[in-house]
Specification:
alpha+beta; two-stranded antiparallel sheet; disordered N terminus
Length: about 400
Amino acid sequence: MKKLSITLACGLLLFAGTLQAQGYKEKIGLPGDNLNLYAVLKVFQESPTLEEFENRLNSPDEIINNLDLNGDNRVDYIQVIDYAQGDRHDIVLRVAINRRESQDVAVISVLKDRYNGVSIQITGDPVLYGNNYIIEPNYYDDNDINARPNPGYTGSRISVGDMVININYTSGREIYSWPISRYLFSSYYTPWRSPWRWGYYPSYWTPWQPYYWDYYYGYQYNSLRYYLSNFRSWNNHRDPHWRDHYDKVRSASRSVIIRRDKGDYNRTYNQPDHRKAGDERFRRDNPRDRRDNNYDNRPGNNDRNDHNYNRPGNNDRNDHNYNRPDNNNKPEVKKGEPQRGSVIRRETTVIRTTPDVKRAEPNKGEVKREEAKKPQDRKAEVKKSEKKESTNNGRRSRERNKD
C-alpha cells in the first residue's frame, strides 16, 4: 500500500511536470496560486449577475478562493466592484487587508465593439501573479475576436499528460450571448459595487481555514480539461487603453508586498502528499464529474478525520478572536450590515394566501334574514295596506251612524 501511494504521488508530479511543458504552469510561486483564475473565469461565464458571481467566489463549497493575504489563517472575502464607462467594464476583485489597506487580486476587462463582439480578459495583479498574467477565452482568430471557423474546420487537440483535450474555439459574438454579458450590457444595468467591507460581511459567510496549496491544486486540476478546452493564457491586452483606465482605481497593499518579499506565503507549498486528498474531495463533491484518466481509480482512504489538510492554526473558530483592530487580522465580523451609501437589491417573493373561512350555519329555529324585495312587490303591499285601512275606516263610520 505504501509503494502504491508513492507511485501515485510520483504520477501526479509527473502529470504536473507535463502540464508545465505544455505551457500551463501548475504554480507560479506567488500568492495568486491560491486563486485559480481559470476557475474564476469559468464562474464568471456561468453567473447571471455580478452579485451571484461574488457569492460563488466566496462560497466554501466551490473551493475557488483559498487566499489568506493578511496571514490571520482565515480565507479572505473577495469584493467585486465594477468600474464601468460606456461599453467598457473593469470588474475588480479586491480584498480588504485591514481597516486601512486593500489589495486588488485581479481585474476582468470586458469590452464590447460596434459589431456586438465582446472581448473578455482576466489579469492577475502583478503583486500576486507577476507581470502580464492574462487568461482569456480560446478565440478562433488571434487578431479578430469576431471571426468564426469555416464550415470545414474540425478543431484542434492538445495532449496534456495522459489527457487529450479538444479545443473549443469561440468568437466575440458568441461571448455576447453569455448571461453575464447580457446582464452587463442591458439597458437596466446599474454598475455593481460590493456593499461589504472590512469587518462587515454577509450573514451567510463565515471565514474558514485555508487549505495547503497542494490540497487546493489536487482539487482544482480535476477541472483542468474544461479550463484548457475553453480558456488559454495570453501575453498582451486586447484593449490598448486598458491600463490608462484601470491604474486610476487600482489598490495595492504595502503589507502584502512585505509579506511576499519575506516569503511568508511560501509556507503553503510544503505538503505535496495532500494532492491525493484534494482529488478525492473533488470526486466526493462531484460524483458525476469524473475525469477520463487513470487517476479516477486510485485507491485510498476517504476518511479525513485523522488528517489535517488545512494550514497550521486553531481549527476551533469559536476560540478564535477576530477583534484585533491594530493587527493585520480581521475584526469582529458584523454580519448583515452593508456599507454605508450602498443599496442591496434583493428579490422578494410575496405569497398571498387566503385562509379557508367556514361560515357558521344557522341553528334550527333561527330566522333567516329576508331577501331583498323587488320595488314592484313593495308598491303592491303599500296599496293593499291602504285599501285595508280604508275599509276599516268605512266600517267604523257606519257603526257610529247606527248609534
